[in-house]
Design a protein that fits this description.
Elements lengths: L6 E6 L5 H15 L2 E9 H13 L8 H25 L3 H4 L2 E9 L1 H11 L4 E6 L3 H10 L1 H7 L4 E5 L4
Parallel strand pairs: 1-2, 1-4, 2-3, 4-5
Helix pairs in contact: 5-7
């Protein structure tokens, strides 16, 4: 017996090619009459690097400044995600109704994808992977492979085009 898919988690890094994988998430949702939850994870490792470099450029945050910057970053990402969704479903307005939620999370991408898939009761995960060759293997190993090693639900890993 096949499992019913009612909710799809689409994990995106907002790269130019991520629209390609988004198309698969929307098509999957259409075939199963499912909802799509869009997730972007702010990589905790990248945040640590930004904080470290901030010290080198003599940046001294004022009280509450960090929280304000984080709120602005979240709002900017939410706007970019909304624009991304609108742009990629413009030809098929019915598809726009499939996206029911936009989530922004902070942490290690693979951990957050797995956590959100469970928290949001998603039945499948769609995510892209970049390029070909050695670079692809290192990226694939860093996020998609970690998700695949620990997940207990279907995952669709979409190879993204090079262009």
């Amino acid at each position: 017996m096949t499992q019913e898919i009612k909710r799809v988690l689409y994990a995106t890094d907002l790269s130019d090619n991520s629209a390609y994988a988004f198309g698969y998430a929307i098509n999957l949702a259409a075939k199963f009459d499912a909802e799509v939850v869009v997730l972007h994870v702010i990589d905790k490792t990248m945040e640590s690097t930004q904080i470290m470099f901030a010290g080198y450029i003599n940046y001294t945050p004022i009280e509450g400044d960090l929280e304000k910057r984080i709120a602005l970053i979240h709002e900017d990402i939410r706007k970019r995600l909304k624009g991304f969704i609108d742009k990629n479903v413009a030809a098929d307005p019915e598809s726009a109704g499939k996206v029911v939620q936009i989530e922004i999370s902070k942490g290690y991408p693979a951990d957050e994808i797995l956590k959100k898939a469970d928290e949001l009761h998603c039945d499948a995960i769609v995510m892209g992977t970049h390029g070909k060759g050695i670079v692809s293997r290192s990226f694939f190993g860093s996020v998609a492979k970690r998700v695949l090693r620990r997940v207990r639900k279907p995952v669709f890993v979409i190879p993204l085009p090079e262009e």
